[in-house]
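Hey team,

Filing this mostly as a record. A colleague (T.K.) asked me to run one chain through the structure pipeline before their review meeting, and I want the input and output archived in the tracker in case anyone asks later how it was produced. No errors, nothing strange. Just documentation.

Input sequence:
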Amino acid sequence: MDAMTLHIEPAAADPIYRQIVGQISRLITAGQCPPGTRLPSVREVAAAHAINPMTVSKAYNLLEAQGLLERQPGKGMRVASRSVDDNPLAARLHALQPALLELARQARQLDLEADQVIDALLPLINEAPSQEETH
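Output structure:
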């Protein structure tokens, strides 16, 4: 994994550290960062995205506290050997839970039916990722 794998949106509602935590958690859960994968250093991520190193450090510390990352002296942070759930589908669906709850809340506020939301969501799920999403 390199620092540019992360997509940071400074103007987003979520704080930057939570964006980092969420993205790395999803990459690990999806198996895109298997156990032992080296993460970019705090300085590399901070420099690549022009953000405060303390923000990246906070995200890494939270991921370590969750058991997803482990600190290896002299080698930096790596994906923990026990970071992968025994039920990968359940773990991936669980990672979507906050976004699904927000989507459901907004759909209710907009007085949309479930089938209307699903019809709008399916093409988005099935389309190829845009260039913006891959960076």
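Quick notes for T.K.: The longest strand covers residues 69-72. The chain has a mean pLDDT of 86.
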